[in-house]
TrEMBL record:
It is an enzyme of class 1 (oxidoreductase). Binds 1 heme b (iron(II)-protoporphyrin IX) group non-covalently per subunit. Its main location: other. Residues 234-416 form the Dyp-type peroxidase C-terminal domain. Its EC number is 1.11.1.-. Belongs to the DyP-type peroxidase family. The gene is efeB_3. It comes from Streptomyces graminearus. Residues 79-223 form the Dyp-type peroxidase N-terminal domain. PANTHER family: DEFERROCHELATASE, DEFERROCHELATASE/PEROXIDASE. Transmembrane segments: none annotated. Pfam families: Dyp_perox_C (PF20628), Dyp_perox_N (PF04261). This is Deferrochelatase. Involved in the recovery of exogenous heme iron. Extracts iron from heme while preserving the protoporphyrin ring intact.
Length: 429
């Protein structure tokens, strides 16, 4: 969880305002040396709100019908699922190309996937063998995002097109990674504000893979549903902390430079794309929940009630890092998570967090398997994710309450133009 967490897209009063704000339309030193350093642990969460009331209750902030009618566009400059507001539910799934499958098979697969994604995001049935799972629902802000892992380029003979930004992440000192749930040739991120719509897309993508690719791992997550709060507010993570306050915003002057590869960038096929770091971060909730609220606030550096810095003010008030108490101790401790993750304490490193929470049941010993499916976006992981993780590794108070259990990095090309499929400029260039 980092204070510079997932961009919280406010839930507007009207669906039209929401569409305008989020891009959702209603209707229908050397790189090798730096990567070689040990890193850290960290996580974040953000979400959007929503609920419906009984007939006698006041009208909800977001009418039920608007949830289904909201639509994200497929043919856009940047792939969908990056800058839109967080969806209520989602699936992350990685595939490996089947034995014998190469560039030709990969191109055919991305063509199928793109056609399916375009139709489903418009609220239409899958191109073939539709399951009718979401027949009664609209698009529900569905987004489908595609990426390529490091190993994809070897499998397809495209090693010369592999970006240097896709170099493997360093082995961070606090990692406990399950290799079977890490990496992958191909990655798909699915998000929607209706669980059946999200599952429908997941099933269609899995079926489209056919004999060309097999599932390597899959993870399922959730966020707050639209309208669940009386007014727009930043979400809480599974630790109960307001999380999503300091994420970069598209209105920031440096946003595009920090998050997206420029149109003139290298390699050319990654123009307007981004790099996604995906981490499954388990929260040790039994340990966390034993702490008094005051101790939890010291770990984070913010009040639990409203997310304000311990130095006072409101959620978006600046932290007074030099402020001390009567004993002369810093009000926001030196190892507080919010202090360590500030961009101005990490050479300006910034990334756009857009995660999902997860809960995969209870272990045999009664411990919940729950936490965060951390997804962050940046123009270069070496300038975004890596320096922040390295800084956290040096003494983040939150580290003893979380555990990174899987990791992956994917190159996510820019959006497909009309008549194109995602990745076409790589696979046919």
């Amino acid at each position: 969880m980092t204070d510079q967490s997932t961009r919280q897209a406010p839930t507007p009063t009207s669906p039209a305002a929401e569409a305008t704000a989020s891009g959702v339309r209603s209707g229908g030193v050397s790189r090798r040396a730096l990567l070689g350093t040990a890193g850290a642990t960290g996580l974040v969460l953000g979400a959007a709100g929503g609920a419906v009331g009984y007939a006698a209750a006041p009208a909800p902030a977001t009418p039920l019908t608007s949830v289904g009618s909201d639509r994200a566009l497929f043919h856009v400059k940047h792939q969908p699922g990056i800058t839109e507001g967080l969806q209520a539910c989602g699936h992350l799934i990685a595939f490996d190309l089947a034995a014998g499958a190469g560039r030709k098979e990969a191109a055919a697969l991305l063509r199928r996937w793109s056609a399916t994604a375009e139709r489903l995001m418009a609220g239409e049935p899958a191109p073939h063998d539709d399951t009718d799972v979401s027949r009664d629902a609209g698009p529900s802000s569905l987004t489908v995002t595609f990426g390529f892992g490091n190993s994809f380029f070897t499998r397809t003979g495209l090693e010369k097109q592999r970006p240097s930004a896709l170099d493997p992440l360093p082995d961070f000192s606090s990692d406990h990674l399950d290799k079977a749930r890490s990496d992958g040739d191909l990655w798909v991120q699915i998000g929607a504000n209706d669980a059946l719509v999200a599952f429908h897309a997941l099933r269609a993508i899995q079926k489209d893979a056919g004999a060309a690719a097999r599932v390597r791992w899959q993870m399922n997550g959730f966020n707050r549903a639209p309208g669940a709060t009386a007014h727009p507010m930043t979400a809480r993570n599974l630790m109960g902390q307001i999380d999503g306050t300091g994420n970069p915003k598209p209105t920031d002057a440096a946003f595009d430079k920090q998050i997206f590869v420029p149109s003139s960038g290298e390699p050319a096929w990654m123009a307007n794309g981004s790099y996604a770091v995906v981490r499954r971060i388990r929260m040790l909730l039994d340990d966390w929940e034993k702490l008094p609220v005051a101790a939890q606030e010291q770990v984070i550096g913010r009040r639990k009630t409203d997310g304000a810095p311990l130095t006072g003010g409101h959620e978006n008030s600046p932290m007074e890092l030099e402020k001390t108490d009567a004993k002369g101790d810093y009000v926001i401790a030196l190892n507080a998570h919010a202090r360590i993750t500030r961009p101005d304490k990490n050479g300006g490193a910034a990334m756009l967090r857009r995660p999902f929470s997860y809960h995969d049941g209870i272990d045999a010993d009664g411990v919940p398997d729950a936490g965060l499916l951390f997804v962050c976006w940046q123009a270069d992981p070496l300038l975004g994710f890596v320096p922040v993780q390295r800084k956290l590794d040096r003494g983040d108070a939150l580290s003893r309450f979380i555990r990174h259990e899987s990791s992956a990095l994917f190159a996510v090309p820019g959006g497909a133009a009309e008549g194109e499929y995602v990745g076409q400029r790589l696979l046919e260039g």
